[in-house]
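Final report, Chapter 2: Outcomes

The project's central promise was a pipeline that accepts a single protein chain and returns its three-dimensional structure in a standardized token representation, suitable for archiving and comparison. That pipeline is now operational. To close this chapter, we reproduce one record exactly as it appears in the project archive, with the input sequence first and the structure output second.
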Amino acid sequence: MKRFIIAITGASGVCYAKRLFDVLQPQAELHVIISERGGELLKLELDLASKYFAKENVTVYRNSKINASVASGSFPIDGMVVLPASMGTIGRIAAGTSESLIERAADVALKERNKLILVPRETPFSQIHLKNMLRLDQAGVLILPANPAFYQNPQSVDDLVDFVVARILDQLDVDHDLTEPYKP
């Protein structure tokens, strides 16, 4: 069974994290870290509490628990996804500062050369945002903005969310049936 970390920060777009969680949970061991603001957005945008994530094969962490097992290089993972990734979190990861469990786990993923995917949901980007993302890309992080496509003729917001989540699953090498292959 694959092992993934899903980190939910204080950027809008927690629907992406919930959908990724719902697809992965039956087939993977998940470790979910929710920032304080991420928890507020779960309530605001989806009317969900963080206890939603307390399911089989799932461990949920407080972001303040910086000494949790996922903050150690001896804790093997198949990948970490920060979704949605706030620009503050991206900036702190780019600077190598680890003031929270999300930042520390991302720092460990980087140093252990594990797959780390950041899904920014900010728009527009400032030069600072772009420089931070470039620095992370150069360090081996995959920057996968929450930019849905329209060539598959989406019929709902769920279709748009599934498109982005499908791209994440592709990068994690997880089979899915969320979208059809592109056929011009």
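Archive annotation: The mean pLDDT is 96.
This record, like all others produced under the grant, will remain available to the consortium after the project formally closes.
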